[in-house]
Please model this.
Amino acid sequence: EPEVTQTPSHQVTQMGQEVILRCVPISNHLYFYWYRQILGQKVEFLVSFYNNEISEKSEIFDDQFSVERPDGSNFTLKIRSTKLEDSAMYFCASTTNRGGSFGPGTRLTVT
Amino acid sequence: GENVEQHPSTLSVQEGDSAVIKCTYSDSASNYFPWYKQELGKGPQLIIDIRSNVGEKKDQRIAVTLNKTAKHFSLHITETQPEDSAVYFCAASPTGKLIFGQGTTLQVKP
Model:
């Protein structure tokens, strides 16, 4: 069964550095999402992406965040200047319609 | 915006017993309600979902009920097994995005 994959599994970075989290969605899916989960808390929506543009974003997704689908298979989340509070698990999800198949996540640790 | 409340936060049952997790939502525009199971170190896995035009859906030992009038929906797991132990999240979707509840840690004691 096809799966969403994410790399790296764990990323450690210093405050103020840029990070890029990568995802390969399921190939026939059309809608792509990023969510994050701070340790012990609920999963929070960040952004949705459809037809090569952002379709919806949350208040968390400020100017420090950006998404891109550079080559038709990868889907990336960039955080321009990381803050301590960006430490979390970041999940990519994709779907043909509603819901989503989630990847295993990238644990981002900002020191 | 949509808000989803989930109860209980932790639930401990004996193997073979039933487990029920309840969620309420605020946005009447929500029309899709999935449930996810998250095991330690993994991403959420969809286990069952229901749309607003259906009141109940069942898949083997798992069932979900939806009361649109009261804006609540529930997950029922029967004949629980130790491998059911995980964190369960409900979610509601008014658009494409998912708004998650706080999660329920289910422990099934053998």
